[in-house]
């Protein structure tokens, strides 16, 4: 029975991924929640309460839980936890940027290193997927979209670098690591920063649709692609793709993204 760990699994893409994986009775799904009172467990989905990835002890708390369940191997780790606050040249935010870095890059990096340093929990059968965004690609930034949102873009870029470095550290062990842009989604996160006005024009999909594409892509991902950056749903929702990469209708799906 494969063990799937979804970090940040109570809403948005994380919740959809947990539900998608639990639909296969052969999977054992572990789903983290910040709340001390997460949704009820089901036959093959177990919630791990009190895991806030932006805190220093998230990894230790997660390991403690895993040990109590006598889990010896995790087959797939997907880290979806994120935070997004808008900024502009006139209105940057030290506090918001700090929270984005803690949530989007520091926490995920430390959590994966914690798992990797615990015996054989991550091994040659393991895949680690960092949910990033095309917004973390320096190459894809273009004057047509302008600047701003410094913490959002830069924290995703930093996550991409951490994932690349972890892929080098863990390649000899056979642990496959990827960074993905799951697609532009119709979530409370994007609505909360006013991006719902771009949903239709930008081709935003529901988290369930994005999760289905991501689960399918993960099933084909292996060590031969470790350390790479992918858009499983292709270029359709990447606003600068035409300007930077060429006509979208000539680009493949899935699409490997430039750093």
Automatic annotation (TrEMBL):
<dbReference type="InterPro" id="IPR002347">
    <property type="entry name" value="SDR_fam"/>
</dbReference>
<dbReference type="GO" id="GO:0016616">
    <property type="term" value="F:oxidoreductase activity, acting on the CH-OH group of donors, NAD or NADP as acceptor"/>
</dbReference>
<protein>
    <submittedName>
        <fullName>NAD(P)-binding protein</fullName>
    </submittedName>
</protein>
<dbReference type="InterPro" id="IPR052184">
    <property type="entry name" value="SDR_enzymes"/>
</dbReference>
<dbReference type="Pfam" id="PF00106">
    <property type="entry name" value="adh_short"/>
</dbReference>
<dbReference type="InterPro" id="IPR036291">
    <property type="entry name" value="NAD(P)-bd_dom_sf"/>
</dbReference>
């Amino acid at each position: 029975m494969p063990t799937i760990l979804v970090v940040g699994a109570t809403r948005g893409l994380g919740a959809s991924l947990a539900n998608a994986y639990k639909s296969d009775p052969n999977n054992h799904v572990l789903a983290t929640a910040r709340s001390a009172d997460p949704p009820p467990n089901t036959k093959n989905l177990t919630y791990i309460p009190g895991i806030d990835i932006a805190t220093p002890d998230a990894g230790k708390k997660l390991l403690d839980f895993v040990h109590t369940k006598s889990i010896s191997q995790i087959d797939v780790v997907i880290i979806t936890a994120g935070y997004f606050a808008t900024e502009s040249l006139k209105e940057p935010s030290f506090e918001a940027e700090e929270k984005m870095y803690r949530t989007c890059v520091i926490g995920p990096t430390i959590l994966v290193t914690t798992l990797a340093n615990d015996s054989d929990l991550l091994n040659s059968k393991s895949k680690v997927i960092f949910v990033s965004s095309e917004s973390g690609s320096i190459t894809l930034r273009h004057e047509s979209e302008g600047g701003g949102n410094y913490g959002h873009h830069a924290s995703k870029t930093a996550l991409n670098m951490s994932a690349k470095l972890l892929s080098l550290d863990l390649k000899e062990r056979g642990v496959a690591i990827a960074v993905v842009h799951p697609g532009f989604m119709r979530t409370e996160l994007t609505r909360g920063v006013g991006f719902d006005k771009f949903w239709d024009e930008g081709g935003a999909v529901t988290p369930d649709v994005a999760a289905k594409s991501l689960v399918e892509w993960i099933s084909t991902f292996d060590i031969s692609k470790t350390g790479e950056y992918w858009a499983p749903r292709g270029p359709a929702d990447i606003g600068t793709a035409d300007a930077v990469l060429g006509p979208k209708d000539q680009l493949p799906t899935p699409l490997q993204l430039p750093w």
